[in-house]
Amino acid sequence: MTNTIETINTVSQLAGTAEYAGIAKDVIIAISAAVAAVMAVWGLTAWRRELKGKSEYAKAKEVLKAVYRVREGFKHVRRPAIWQFEYPEEMIDSNGYLKPEHDHEGNTYVYETRIKVLNEAFSELEEQTLDAQVEWGPEFEDVIKPLRECRADLMIAIQDFLEAKKIPHYNQGRTKEERTKHLSVLYYGGPGSERDKFTPQINKAIEGFEDRLRPRIKS
After folding, report:
1. Which of 27, 70, 103, 152 has the most CB atoms at less than 10 Å from its CB?
2. Which 3 state secondary structure label does DSSP give 153?
3. C-alpha to C-alpha distance for 125 and 122, rounded to whole angstroms
4. Cα–Cα dist 29/204, whole Å
5. Residue 98: strand pairing partners
6. How far is Cα 52 from Cα 47, in angstroms, rounded to an integer?
C-alpha cells in the first residue's frame, strides 16, 4: 500500500513537472519569437539606414561630379586661343589661319562647337539637381540658379563677340570698363588672374553645391 501511494505521488510530481516544463517551454518560445521580431525590426531599420546613407553618398558624388563637369565646360568655352583644327578646313588658308572673309562664320562655328560641351554638361547637372530635390527636398531647388546666370552671361558675351565680327564698329561707344568686363567673361584667365573676374563668380556658384554635398560625402 505504501509503495502504491509513493508511486502515485511520484507520478503526480512528474506530471506536474512535465506540465510546468511545457508551460516554461511555451514561454521561452514566445519570448524568443518576440526577441527575434524585435531584432528583425532593428536589423531592418539599421539596414535601411545604411542603405539610405549609401544612396545619399552615391547621389552626392554624382551631383558633385556633374557640377565639376560644368566647371570644365566653362573653361572649354572660354579658352582664349582658337586652334587651327577648330575651324572647318575650307575656311583656313595654307598657313593655318582663318581666311578674313570667314571671320564671322568661322568663329561662330568654333563657339557653337565649344558650347555643345557646356550644354551637355549642364543638361546632366539639371537632371542630377532634380534627383537631388527628390532625395533631399527644396534646399536644392535654387542652388543651380547662380550657375544658370553665369551661363547666360557667357552666352551674351559670346554673342557680342560674334556680332562684332559681323558688324563694323559694333563695340563703338563702349567704355574701357565695359570692354574689360566683356573680355573677362569671354576669356578664362587661369588661377589667380587679376583680369579674370568671371571665374570667381563661377566658383562661387559651385560652392553653393559643395556646401550642401560635401557633408553628405564625408558622413
Report:
1. 70
2. helix
3. 5
4. 62
5. 92
6. 8
pLDDT value of residue 135:
84
Asked if residue 114 has pLDDT above 70, the reply is: yes
Backbone angles phi, psi at 99, to 5 degrees: -65, 140
Q: Which residues pair with 163 in a beta bridge?
A: none
Instruction: List the grid coordinates of 45.
Output: 531599420
Please list, residue by residue across 114-134, b when 16 or more beta carbons sit within 10 angstroms of its beta carbon and e when fewer do.
bbebbeebbebbeebbeebee
Confidence (pLDDT) at 210: 94
In order of 36, 55, 197, 199, 219, the CA distances from 41 in angstroms are 9, 21, 56, 51, 24
Take residue 33 and report the three cell numbers written for it. Answer: 519569437
Residue 68's CB: how many other CB atoms inside 10 A? 15
pTM above 0.85, yes or no: no
Residue 200 scores a pLDDT above 60: yes
